[in-house]
Structure to design on (118 residues):
């Protein structure tokens, strides 16, 4: 079972269903119906298992092109834990650098199967 890791406990994680944006995997891409383990800070000594969830929807999004950035809707950005679509775009640029110009990103919708935290 594959892992999706988060850097902080976003408010969205307390919802029965939530979205997260992920790049395509190099080994095996994300697919609808896949069950994944969710962790907080997976690659650190403070690793914490949050539970398991199922991917119930997958939408392809382009974060940016050479000429214009992808602008998520305000509703998407707020649902994902950001204050605005501009803040979300700045976070993507800071976190992923030029990768946002090279690859599409998936908007994954997940549904908790079992959750260990609130």
């Amino acid at each position: 079972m594959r892992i999706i890791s988060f850097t902080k406990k976003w408010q969205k994680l307390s919802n029965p269903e939530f979205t997260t944006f992920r790049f395509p995997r190099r080994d095996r891409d994300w697919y609808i119906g896949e069950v994944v383990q969710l962790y907080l800070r997976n690659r650190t000594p403070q690793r914490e298992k949050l539970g398991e969830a199922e991917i119930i929807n997958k939408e392809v999004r382009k974060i940016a092109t050479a000429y214009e950035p992808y602008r998520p809707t305000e509703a998407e950005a707020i649902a994902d834990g950001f204050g605005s679509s501009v803040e979300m775009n700045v976070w993507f640029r800071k976190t992923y650098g030029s990768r946002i110009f090279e690859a599409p990103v998936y908007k994954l919708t997940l549904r908790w199967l079992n959750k260990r935290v609130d």
